[in-house]
Amino acid sequence: KPPTRETHPKVRFWTRKDYEDWLDSPEAGGSNRGLYVYLEDENGDVPTSEMLTKIRRALRAGWIELTQRKIAPDTWGRASTTALQFIRAHMEKDFPLFKLAESGWKLEHLCTKTYLAWRTKCLDDN
Predict the structure, then answer these.
(1) Which structural domain range is residue 101 located in?
(2) Contact between residue 101 and residue 13 where contact means Cβ atoms under 8 Å apart
(3) pTM
(4) C-alpha to C-alpha distance for 107 and 112, rounded to whole angstroms
(5) Radius of gyration of the chain from Cα atoms?
(6) Do the domain assignments include residue 3?
(7) Nearest to residue 68, comparing CAs of 83, 90, 53, 88?
(8) Is residue 68 part of a domain?
(9) 2 within some domain
């Protein structure tokens, strides 16, 4: 059974709206939780910098795999269902924190924010 807000009450950002509402709050303005505040573990804690490095490395490896399979999109918003499913399975297996979100929005958000820069740097140079 997938995790839910009820099974993981310490997770604050189950939906993108939860996160966006928080961004607009006074609390967010004074927060030192960083850019990845929405990536929470089951205790509501933000990943360590070491964990973020592992997440980014794994995500880039997944994108390389998409490239090798010739299904890497030009932009993340244009990713095929196959590409999306591959990345989701790839990342959720090693980083269960991505399951702590409605409809996989946290992984989608991370990909949307970081894919284009990776593609521009790593693919368009070749």
Answers:
(1) 16-122
(2) yes
(3) 0.90
(4) 8
(5) 15
(6) no
(7) 83
(8) yes
(9) no
